[in-house]
Specification:
460 residues; PH-domain like; 7-stranded antiparallel β-sheet; 13 helices; 37% helix
């Protein structure tokens, strides 16, 4: 199998064991493998960087840190290293019978078995320290949205992680939606760094950073001493880190279409390479903030079943994966046509009396659909348009609040397996909502049946 990223050398598949000099072994032979011995240092890298930032901040304020605080921080770092070494020592993994098994734990043993047929996406993640050491973390997302069912191997050699990613996708290929054999890799999108930088500043975090910067400047100007900014230091560091995480995570985002699925690569210091298998996208969301709309910018996100496990940075796991972190409407439409050919538009507006319940967002309340997709839009300050494939719908809910009952309105929610994106057909006439509720289950069953027939025909 070839890498989905053009101009990238194929991964070296000579050895997938972390032991230097060991001969190559077949991945599926059932033998056990260990993670790389330097994995504990990579895991402790975030704590080390946090300690370094605190010391730099204290030095910038011309304050001497207490010796006891430094000793405590170093002791915590040492405990993290020791715990990481023990975790590495008792962790092993194998692939056998179409199942990835990861065993870990010293006092309490934990054995995870991940059926490869349920794998939704495979990611290769590199932190800054991992890149220096030539290591990478392999993350598997599994259907169900529960992080306990996801798998992670942290860390392997970069070449080993890339080769293992391809191998896992090959083993899981039996359940993949068929793709024409002659298909080649095509670049679908690449983010512009300057546009990304401007878009990050024009977010809620950017506005918070501006407020903190103004407050800090006024405090220094009125007091005449830089030491008075000490109370603002934790807030300022938090805001800067939030902006940096978003910029670092989405810098250089490149999306390509290949035989294995949709390939994504992004990151400045911490890089991520992942593949979303065909047919695994649960929902697509187009986000258009008010300020961005003035520049013609938008953001396109996808939701894939299975939790993105981020123990070191939980906020990363909560944010949707952006195929287009910031781009033009034309780029978003082109990507939508690739992901959902012939997708419908939200052309059915809400009834006029919905203005009484949603006077600000009424203008954007609309929905549409066909025999494959449902789309719904909402929001005024931040307009959101969500597409959900009918074959991915897990449940349909009919909701009617007190004010809606007085206005004879109701909302229909469509939930997908991703559990983080749902299409909400808001504030419809009650009779229309009941009609939608009656029709959508049949359409969803028909879409699933058609999808199963296409998959079976492709496999045959």
């Amino acid at each position: 199998m070839t890498s989905p990223f053009p101009n990238e050398a194929p991964a070296d598949d000579t050895s997938l064991s972390s032991r230097p000099g060991r001969p190559a072994q077949l991945l599926g032979d059932g033998s056990w493998h260990r993670l790389h011995p330097l994995s504990p240092f990579v895991r402790a890298g975030r704590q080390f960087m946090s300690l370094t930032i605190v010391l730099i901040g204290i030095s910038a304020l011309n304050q001497r840190p207490a010796r006891g605080e430094i000793v405590t921080d170093l002791a915590v770092l040492g405990v993290v290293l020791v715990a990481g070494f023990i975790s590495w020592l008792v962790t092993r993994w194998q692939i056998a019978g179409g199942v990835l098994r990861v065993d870990t734990g010293l006092i309490r043993r934990d054995s995870r078995r991940i059926p490869l047929s349920q794998v939704q996406a495979v990611d290769v993640v590199q932190s800054g320290l991992a890149r220096i050491l030539g290591l990478a973390e392999l993350q598997l997302r599994v259907a169900g949205g529960d992080s306990s069912r996801s798998g992670r191997l942290a860390c392997l050699r970069r070449a080993d992680a890339e080769a293992l990613r391809l191998h896992l996708l090959a083993l899981a290929g039996a359940s993949m939606v068929p793709v024409p054999a002659g298909s080649q890799s095509r670049q679908l999108f690449r983010v512009r760094p300057r546009r990304l930088f401007g878009a990050v500043l024009l977010t809620r975090s950017g506005a918070t950073a501006l407020v903190v910067a103004v407050a800090t400047g006024l405090t220094v100007q009125l007091s005449g001493s830089a030491k008075t900014v000490a109370p603002f230091l934790p807030v300022a560091l938090g805001v800067v880190l939030a902006l940096w995480r978003q910029f670092n995570g989405e810098y250089g985002t490149t999306v390509v279409a290949a035989r294995d699925g949709i390939g994504l690569r992004s990151g400045l210091i911490q890089t991520t390479a992942e593949t979303i298998r065909p047919g695994r996208i649960q929902a697509v969301r187009l986000v258009e903030p008010l300020i961005w709309r003035a520049f013609g910018w938008c953001r396109l996100e996808v939701d894939v079943a299975g939790s993105r496990e981020r123990r070191e940075n939980p906020s990363e796991g909560r944010r949707q994966r952006a195929l287009i972190p910031v781009g033009s409407r034309a780029e978003a439409e082109s990507m939508l046509a690739e992901l959902m050919p012939g997708h419908p538009l939200p052309v059915r507006p809400a009834p006029p009396r919905a203005r009484w319940k949603a006077p600000l967002s009424y203008h954007f309340l609309a929905w549409g659909g066909d025999d494959r997709y449902v789309v719904a839009s909402r929001g005024r300050v931040c307009r959101q348009t969500t597409w959900v494939p009918l074959q991915k719908v897990q449940s349909i809910r009919w909701v009617e609040g007190p004010l809606q009952r007085r206005l004879s309105l109701a909302t229909v929610h469509l939930d997908a397996a991703g559990k983080r994106v749902s299409a909400s057909i808001q504030d419809r006439d009650s009779a229309e909502a009941l009609e939608i509720l009656g029709d959508l289950p049949d359409l969803a069953r028909a879409a699933r049946s058609q999808g199963a027939q296409q998959a079976a025909g492709g496999a045959a």
